[in-house]
C-alpha cells in the first residue's frame, strides 16, 4: 500500500471514521444517521452511506486499554473489506494521535500478508493508496508505520516458509539481500569458517542434516565509533526433528517455526537500518537444521563450544540453547556490546507457564526488565519476568563435562534453559533472554492452521529506539 497525508477528507469519496467506544459525536458531522447500530467497541465496524452515496466505515477503537493493540482493529477491517475498496481510501485521522496513526498503518500493512505464497493459484490484489487527514505533520509517522508493518510481514513469511525451502543457507541469502536493500553489512559464516572459528556447538547440532549450518552476522553502525550499543542473538533452527531424541509426530510439521527468534533479529536489524536510528547494533543468527542421520550428535556425547566450555548432551531436542550458547559467547568475546539480548522459541515449558499471551523474560538487570516490560505493554507484545535464582544451577551439573544441556527435571524447564544460557554470557551485566515459544507462532483469525504472529519486531525496535534517543 501507499500512504499519504491530506489536510481534509473528500466527503464525496469513501472513508474510514475511527470511533472510540460510546463517543460517536464525529458521526453526526458526516452522516445523516445520528444513532447507527454501532457503539465503537474494539474490533467492530459498521458500513453506512454518506450524503453522496459514498461508503463510510465506522471503525471501533474500543477503550483506552485497547490502544496498545490498535493495529488489530485496522487490520481486521482492511482484511475483510479491502476487496470492496476503490484504489484509494481515506482515514479521518483528526482525532488520532501519532502513535494511533502509526498503529493504523501497521494494521493496514499486516492485512496485506499473503500466507498462501506457495499456492499455484494466487489472487492478485491491486495496489491501493490510503490517505490520512490530519492537521499534524505525519509523513515520518506514516513511513515508520509502513516500514514496521512490512518488516512484520517479511519475518512472518520467513517463519511460515516450509523447511525444504527455508534452510540455514536460505536464511543467509535472505540476510544478504536485506543488507543490500537496507544498506547495512552482512557476513555469512559457512561450514569451514565455523570449524576454523570454533562454533562447535552449532556444528554439532547441524551434523545430522544435509543442509549445513551457518552463522549470520548483520551489522548496522551509523555512529563514528567501534563501540556496539546492542547485540541481538537469535535461535535459527530451520526445522527441529528433536534429533535422536526425536519428537512425537503430532504437530511436527510446525517445527518449521523454530527459527522465530532468528526472524526477529533479521527483521529488527533491517528495520532499524531503514529508520536510520543513530545506534550501533549487531545481529547474530546461529542457524542449523536438527535432523536425524548416522552423523547426528547423540545423547551422552560431550561436545565443545565457542566459549571453550564442554557440554554433556542429555537430550538432543535441547538444541536451541546449544546454538545460542555459541552466539552469546561470540557476542561477549568478539563484539562486547553494552546490551545483549537473545530471542528464541526455546521451551515448551514457557508455554505451559505463560500460555500464548506473553514471552518469558529472564535477566538479572532490573532496569532492562522494567523497561522491556513497560514497552511490552505499550506495543502489546508483553513479557513476564521469571526467576533466575542460583538454586537452579545444580540442575545443570555434569559429572563428566563443564555443564549439561538438559536437567531432566519436568519442572522449571524455561528457567533451566535460561540458566544454561547464562553460563555462556561471562556474567554480562546487561543480558536478557526472551523465550518467545508461546507468542511467535500460533492460532490466528487470519489462517486456518497455526501461523507466525510477527511478535518481537515492535518490542525490540522500541527498546532500540529508546536507547538511541539517549
TrEMBL record:
Its main location: cytoplasm. Its cofactor is Mn(2+). Mn(2+) 1 binds at residues 240, 317, 319. Gene3D superfamilies: Leucine Aminopeptidase, subunit E, domain 1, Zn peptidases. It is an enzyme of class 3 (hydrolase). Keywords: Aminopeptidase, Cytoplasm, Hydrolase, Manganese, Metal-binding, Protease. HAMAP family: Cytosol_peptidase_M17. The active site is at 247, 321. Mn(2+) 2 binds at residues 235, 240, 258, 319. It comes from Psychroserpens luteus. This is Probable cytosol aminopeptidase. It catalyses: Release of an N-terminal amino acid, Xaa-|-Yaa-, in which Xaa is preferably Leu, but may be other amino acids including Pro although not Arg or Lys, and Yaa may be Pro. Amino acid amides and methyl esters are also readily hydrolyzed, but rates on arylamides are exceedingly low; Release of an N-terminal amino acid, preferentially leucine, but not glutamic or aspartic acids. The keyword Cytoplasm applies. Residues 156-460 form the Cytosol aminopeptidase domain. GO terms for molecular function: aminopeptidase activity. CDD domains: Peptidase_M17. The keyword Magnesium does not apply. It is found in: Cytoplasm.
Amino acid at each position: 500500500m501507499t500512504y499519504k497525508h491530506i489536510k481534509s477528507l473528500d466527503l464525496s469519496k469513501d472513508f474510514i471514521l475511527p470511533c472510540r467506544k460510546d463517543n460517536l459525536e464525529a458521526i453526526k458531522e458526516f452522516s445523516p444517521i445520528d444513532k447507527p447500530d454501532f457503539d465503537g467497541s474494539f474490533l467492530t465496524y459498521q458500513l453506512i452511506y454518506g450524503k453522496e452515496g459514498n461508503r463510510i466505515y465506522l471503525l471501533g477503537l474500543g477503550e483506552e486499554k485497547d490502544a496498545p493493540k490498535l493495529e488489530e482493529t485496522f487490520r481486521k477491517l482492511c482484511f475483510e473489506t479491502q476487496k470492496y475498496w476503490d484504489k484509494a481510501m481515506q482515514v479521518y485521522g483528526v482525532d488520532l494521535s501519532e502513535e494511533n496513526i502509526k498503529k493504523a498503518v501497521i494494521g493496514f500493512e499486516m492485512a496485506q500478508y499473503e500466507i498462501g505464497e506457495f499456492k499455484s493459484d494466487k489472487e492478485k490484489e491491486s495496489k491501493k493508496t490510503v490517505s490520512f487527514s490530519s492537521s499534524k505533520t505525519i509523513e515520518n509517522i506514516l513511513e515508520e508505520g509502513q516500514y514496521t508493518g512490512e518488516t512484520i510481514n517479511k519475518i512472518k513469511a520467513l517463519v511460515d516458509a516450509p523447511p525444504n525451502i527455508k534452510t540455514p543457507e536460505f536464511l543467509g541469502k535472505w540476510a544478504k539481500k536485506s543488507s543490500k536493500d537496507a544498506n547495512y553489512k552482512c557476513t555469512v559464516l559457512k561450514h569451514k569458517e565455523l570449524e576454523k572459528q570454533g562454533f562447535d556447538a552449532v556444528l554439532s547440532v547441524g551434523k545430522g542434516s544435509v543442509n549445513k549450518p551457518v552463522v549470520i552476522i548483520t551489522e548496522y553502525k551509523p555512529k563514528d565509533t567501534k563501540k556496539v550499543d546492542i547485540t541481538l542473538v537469535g535461535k535459527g533452527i530451520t526445522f527441529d526433528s528433536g534429533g535422536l531424541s526425536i519428537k512425537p509426530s503430532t504437530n511436527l510439521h510446525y517445527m518449521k517455526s523454530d527459527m522465530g527468534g532468528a526472524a526477529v533479529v533479521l527483521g529488527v536489524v533491517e528495520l532499524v537500518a531503514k529508520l536510520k536510528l543513530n545506534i550501533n547494533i549487531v545481529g547474530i543468527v546461529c542457524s542449523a537444521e536438527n535432523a536425524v542421520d548416522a552423523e547426528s550428535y547423540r545423547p551422552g556425547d560431550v561436545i565443545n563450544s565457542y566459549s571453550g566450555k564442554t557440554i554433556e548432551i542429555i537430550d538432543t531436542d535441547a538444541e536451541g540453547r546449544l546454538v545460542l550458547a555459541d552466539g552469546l559467547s561470540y557476542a561477549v568475546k568478539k563484539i562486547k556490546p553494552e546490551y545483549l539480548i537473545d530471542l528464541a522459541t526455546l521451551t515448551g515449558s514457557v508455554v505451559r507457564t505463560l500460555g500464548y499471551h506473553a514471552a518469558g523474560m529472564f535477566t538479572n538487570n532490573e532496569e532492562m526488565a522494567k523497561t522491556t516490560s513497560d514497552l511490552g505493554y505499550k506495543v502489546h507484545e508483553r513479557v513476564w519476568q521469571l526467576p533466575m535464582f542460583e538454586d537452579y544451577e545444580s540442575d545443570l551439573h555434569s559429572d563428566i563435562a563443564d555443564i549439561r544441556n538438559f536437567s531432566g527435571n519436568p519442572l522449571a524447564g524455561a528457567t533451566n534453559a535460561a540458566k544454561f544460557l547464562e553460563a555462556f554470557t561471562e556474567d554480562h551485566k546487561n543480558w536478557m533472554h526472551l523465550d518467545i515459544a508461546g507468542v511467535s507462532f500460533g492460532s490466528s483469525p487470519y489462517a486456518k492452521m497455526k501461523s507466525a504472529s510477527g511478535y518481537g519486531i515492535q518490542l525490540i525496535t522500541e527498546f532500540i529506539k529508546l536507547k538511541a534517543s539517549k
